[in-house]
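Final report, closing paragraph on structural work. Over the funding period we assembled a curated collection of sequence-structure pairs, and we close with a single example.
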Amino acid sequence: MKNHEADNKENPTLNNSFEEHDERIVSILVTDETERMKFLPHYLGVLCVHIESYIYKLMRSFSKDYDGGEWGFCRLKKIHCDNFKGFYMRPPEGKYQFSCSGNYFDGELSADTAGIVVTLYALNIFIACIYCKHDAFKTFIDKLPTLQKLYDALYEFAREHAEWKLIRAAID
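Its predicted structure, as stored:
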């Protein structure tokens, strides 16, 4: 795994506060192929195929600049904690023009920011579908607490992100 903090001191995913009891959440890019294969099943269980494909679909619908490629898988953890809190996926490096017709957002997002946005969207939609007991999702009711925790962890991370204002505008 590649720790963004160690590799890039100017990483926009990190806050500049370095207190002794640091509660910041950092993202760690998973680079090991074996770990990548286990990544989504670890967090999402049987929903991994559905949510992964939905994230790709959302990216295609929000950005005409997106044309596929290898996505990065990022784990989220608190600085002084060994346990991982959550995850997000991010598209290949670059800038993406994003248009969300549902909330009138139109702007340019980095790959990292675009990944946070589409992962938040996907988790939110699956939570809503399960919560409302949509017919296709009734069997996943036991996954609701897990999905909510994953959403909350990513949202908490996003609030400290250098591009929070863009993220907030895109998910509003």
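Residues 1-19 have pLDDT under 50 and may be disordered. The beta strands are 2-3, 25-30, 72-78, 84-90, 95-100, 105-110. We thank the funder for supporting this effort.
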